[in-house]
Amino acid sequence: MTTDDRHLRAEFDHALQRLEDDLLRMGVFAGTLLTRAVEALKRYDAEAATTVVADDDQADQMHIDIEQRVMELLATQQPMAKDLRTLAAILAVSIDLERMADHAEGIGDAIVRLTRHKALTPPANLTYMEQIVRGMLHDVLEAFVRRDVVLAEVVAVKDETVDALRGQVFRELLTYMAENPRTISPALDLMLVAQHLERAADHVTNVAERVIYMVTGDRRELNVQPAEAR
Question: All domains of the chain, ordered by start, with CATH?
Fold first, then answer.
């Protein structure tokens, strides 16, 4: 390898590391938005929910910036096969993180509607769901940094717990709706919150799949449910 080649490689490695660092910051930001949204729900705080909705734009911009830089590296460098997998993973993960932020925004919108009613106390399992999703996100970002396939697989298994909790929330809210028709509107919004959290966990699972692909080159779908269970 010539001096020029080593210089170009060092520049590429530096740009790649900056991309990974910014992706991790985006992941932390998306997780924080979800936490803020659920905290606003516990307080029925419309103002806090509105700031979550507004801050989703930052996640959108983070994704756009990462996408542009990935495309620039692909166009101007000659990445090796492993580098190509890393760049593809970074781009795909940024999409999932941006969608996680969208789900936080969706929760914020639901909270604004809920504050007009305050007819129902949010099910406790919604908080538990958010805690699990937050832990999953933390661990999958750690798996990304460490290139840890085993940790990525463990994270994906936890998605099943989130799915089960969503089912419990739905059943609880359906009981309220059957007993008191006045609770139908707020109960539907609380169901929507549970759905957003469940979908956020799905996106974390997608990230785990990308970690495995990045490290091994194998494309694997984790926690695939049979069609009748979807």
Answer: 3-229 (1.20.58.220)
